[in-house]
Amino acid sequence: MAEDGSTSDRDAAPTPEIDVRDGVLRLRAPGATWLSTGWRGGRRDADAAYNVSVPEGWTRTDLDAYVAERLSASGFDADGPALLTGVAMEHARAARLDADSEAEDSSAVTAVATAGISNPAALFPDEREDADAASSRASDRSPDEYEPGTVNVLVYADRTLTEGALANLVAVVAEAKAAALVRTTGFPGTTTDAVIVGCPAVAEPDGDLDGEDGVARFSGSGTPIGAAARACVRDAVLASLRSRYADRELPASVADAEYGVATTRSAEVFEPAAAASSEPSATTDRTFDTHE
Length: 292
What we know:
Elements (H helix, E strand, L loop, with lengths): L8 H4 L4 E5 L2 E13 L5 E12 L9 H11 L8 E4 L7 E6 L9 E9 L4 E2 L5 H13 L9 E8 L2 E2 L1 H23 L8 E6 L15 E2 L7 H21 L16 E2 L2 E2 L5 H4 L8 E2 L7
Helix pairs in contact: 4-5
């Protein structure tokens, strides 16, 4: 407890521990609050979050039971949100950075990533073959068929956040992940990417200034927490990609990948102020060719 009565996150929340056993990665932070976009996602209080590697040819659909079995077999007894990936945990990479290098009590951000892009999701397909390949694979694939690959990112900021700041951190992490992937692979992500973000606790601030009571109200790219998260996610994702593709080629297009999709539909674009006086037109399926 600080002299002014606020919570000192650095004292209350030690640096999270990272363990890997039998294809399961645990990011342990006792008493943390997590927000997950993966299976059984949403907000959850738990002592750890997990990233679970599944074997090639995996077909399980009872995900709750499967995750519980894997955690138990790995000797992890703490419940918590979990993500699944076809990437082996030997390619997991972590990055950590102080949010404010000049502050004595600066909070730190930790990111852990596994990156594989055997199932890329192209937003701006440049070639007809991308659209044709994605369309053919989509029609041949059953709804329950698992697609290997996935870019999973787990991030923990050891600073108490507001509800809004925790939710916004998901957007910051996803943006950094997409930017890193576009620069390296040309794709913003895969068909199965997921994010988990966490912090010591979620609380509403008492004061008027950000951080004066130990609570960070904002987590955008211009804040210490957001800026550190961006750097950690970028570096962890790129390091995992370098490991995963050290002895293999990155797919140059959806057509080159084992799986994948391309967004080929165009939406109707309209001015909201004029929408009430016009009838909406039907959307069309076509290859994306221009963008202004």
